[in-house]
Amino acid sequence: MDAIQVNNLRRVFKSTIGVIKRQVKEVIAVDGISFNVSDGELFGVLGPNGAGKTTTVKMLTTLLIPTAGTASILGLDVVKNADQVRPRIGFIFGGERGLYWRLSGLDNLRYFASLYYVDTDVAKKRIVELLDLVGLTGREKEKVEGYSRGMRQRLHIARALLHDPEVLFLDEPTIGLDPVGARELRQAVRNMQSAKKSILLTTHYMFEADMLCQRIAVINKGKIVALDTPEELKKTVKDLSVVEIEVFGISSPHVERIRSLKIIDNLAVENRDQRQVLLIHTPMGPEAIPQLVQNLDGVRLGKIVTREPTLEDAYVRLVGGEG
Amino acid sequence: MNWDRIKKTLKVLEMSFEVQLLQNLTDGFILFGILIQPIIVAFMALWMLKDRGPDYSIFVVVGSGMTGLWTTLLFDGGNSITGERWSGTLEPLVGSPSSMRVIVFGKVLASVTQSLLSMIGCYALVSLVIGNPLTLAKPLMFLVSLIFSVFAFVCFGLIIASLFILIRDIGRMINTLEFPVYILSGFLFPIALLPDWTTPLSYILSPYWAARALHGAARGTLSNGEIMTSIGLLVVFSIIYLFLSKYLYRVILYRARVEASLDTQG
Prior knowledge:
- Chain A is of the alpha/beta class.
- Chain A has helices at 53-60, 82-85, 105-115, 120-133, 149-161, 179-194, 206-212, 230-235, 252-259, 289-294, 311-318; strands at 4-17, 23-37, 42-46, 68-73, 76-77, 89-93, 167-171, 198-203, 215-220, 223-228, 241-248, 266-272, 275-282, 300-307.
- A 6-stranded mixed sheet of chain A has the order 6-7-8-3-9-10, with helices on both faces.
- The radius of gyration of chain A is 22 Å and the shape is globular.
């Protein structure tokens, strides 16, 4: 049996505009997605901000009712059997909210253990183990308000594991963490995977998904645009080269002019401090450079590099340069 | 419901109680409200009533204690779910297997108990200091009335918390909700002083029956049978509130999952 099954899941958010003449505006956050996660698999959902990742996780964790479609966890429907699903799943959402800041880390864990009906003696033992797993041993009696962002994220992980859930949902767990904190957290995720848990991880960091996940669904504007292993996703850009051109203060007409060239497969613009980097996917490789430079007349140029495509390039191609 | 489930539910109740208490005790504003403010109020009240006799003093003390209880219930109970939403903890609570009603019950019970203990402590201390002893005419009946009053108040708190979610504007009118209940429930003066048409309104409020039982037992103005009648009505109201809250919580939690309003940040 699959740990997670999702069939044509859709979620529409409604909001009203105006005071006297009220208009209802609909936003499709998730638009008919389907996928499954096998038992013990670490499955990644990758997409830019606003792609529908968090909404998907909230529907799967029983916190949102889908507008249409179905989803089940361990064979249990997330709407009809929400009460049976909840004890068997754990979830964390990126960010620092969701903890009692004026309480100690230990008190937070004790409270959530009771909410998941974990026996007091079992909880005591498990809290010690989890504090060790997430590297918070010795800091558990301090108030959460004094924790760093990384420590709070790790406390979230410990909270999600208190009841030893079979399926875990990690929604952008490394968002906002410093590189060391993010690396430690990724190690904690690997440890969970070796404990044979089924994990759904959402992220917008390509390397993170590549490093951790067995399969990745790339989601954009509420739809799954690709679903495969990291290796297979990389193959989708095998025929292309990437030309990176550093520019200073490029205008939109210039970007559009480059984008319209026939030799261009895809173009993304990355902002880096005072400069931008044009990431140009082209089958021509270095031979495309003269034509590209010609179309950037009047723009101050920096370094120009040609390289082989990576998984990130596959992702950029799939989401149309919005990553 | 089997015994194991009851034990686990009681544990959730106990932990929600403890967490609420711990949070309140680390908040300077709340500490002022439960330690300093009641001492000032008790001192002023008992000093002014020093020459009016112990019977009058106990009426005012019980009455002001009940106003404090109602205020705590309204503010802490009313905000018990919305507060969790603002701090981002509502999602983990709803996503857990525990009942939201049990969690809110534990939280409100903690706030009400804490408010009550601070009030009793402060009045006892101040009455000793200024030499105006407070005496209860029927201490045992008073204790029984107090226990059932707290239970009824907490059950009422369950309803208030859900109404704050269902009707968001209630939160803005919180201060205007304080006084009508003080008056209609006869906390500080008998409802006989009010126009006749308000009497049925008083009868449908459980705080009225709590005030009747507590004032009656404190001053000895009611027979044991009359006090038991008030307690019986408190039990009836509590059962009604518990059943009503079961329906209300199902509605609000389902609606929050449809409207995506469990978290303020979407």
